[in-house]
Specification:
Blueprint lengths: L2 H16 L7 H9 L20 E2 L5 E2 L2 H11 L6 E5 L5 H9 L2 E6 L2 H13 L5 E5 L12 E10 L4 H4 L2 E13 L2 E9 L5 E8 L17
Parallel strand pairs: 3-4, 3-6, 4-5, 6-7
Antiparallel strand pairs: 1-2, 7-8, 8-9
């Protein structure tokens, strides 16, 4: 794919997949034009970089489709002063998008091979306000709390309270929640020390993040 074709494919991705999915925030669309998604896709899947599908990563994980990442980014509404926690670094593409908007991003990845890949991708892209940590994201990182924004890079059956507790008041968590066939993107905002407000935004499925509790296990 020559450069002209790559730019045309990127343009088509934004116009045909992302805009029709109610992504209209100019700052988000600008980032999707400038952060090179193809540089975050494993070499063998380069040709799929702009296709409306999940892309396989090592360890049975995957990179979410462009429209889903764009919508999560728009919902996160990250501000330049925000400290962001990302759970599930994946290829580092979503991390790069968040880092372009935030002051600082801490990203937790459970798979060592993927963590190394993401670090290399971010370094090549010249992004330095990110720390990719090899860690179990379901535990969060309480020592670094509170966070303005928490973004989950995969789905969970339910959002654990322990993660919500890492938000500062006014902070928000964005996740894809539920069980197949229909999961919902959820924005949970911390409105006070003890109160949280949850809104369902849109429907889509995403691969599971590892080690998050599943409520079914507690039914007798």
């Amino acid at each position: 794919m020559n450069l002209q074709n790559v730019e045309q494919a990127r343009f088509n991705m934004i116009e045909q997949q992302i805009r029709p999915w109610n992504v209209s925030d100019d700052a988000v669309l600008e980032l999707l034009s400038s952060v090179k998604r193809e540089d975050f896709v494993p070499l063998a899947q380069k040709s799929l970089a702009f296709v409306d599908m999940a892309i396989a990563l090592p360890g049975g994980q995957s990179m979410l489709p462009p429209r889903v990442q764009a919508r999560l980014l728009q919902d996160a509404a990250v501000q330049p002063t925000d400290k962001v926690l990302e759970i599930g670094t994946g290829s580092g593409y979503m991390t790069a998008l968040l880092a372009n908007q935030a002051q600082r991003v801490i990203s937790l990845e459970i798979n060592p091979e993927i963590a190394d890949m993401a670090r290399a991708n971010l370094q090549r892209a010249g992004i330095h306000n990110v720390e990719v940590r090899l860690a179990d994201g379901s535990k969060g990182t309480p020592a670094e709390a509170p966070f303005d924004v928490i973004v989950l890079g995969g789905s969970v059956a339910e959002v654990p309270q322990s993660l919500l507790n890492l938000l500062k008041v006014g902070g928000r968590l964005i996740a894809i929640v539920g069980d197949e066939p229909i999961m919902h993107a959820q924005i949970v905002t911390r409105t006070s020390e003890t109160n949280f407000n949850s809104v369902e935004q849109w429907d889509d499925n995403a691969p599971r993040l590892l080690n998050f509790p599943h409520p079914d296990t507690f039914k007798f």
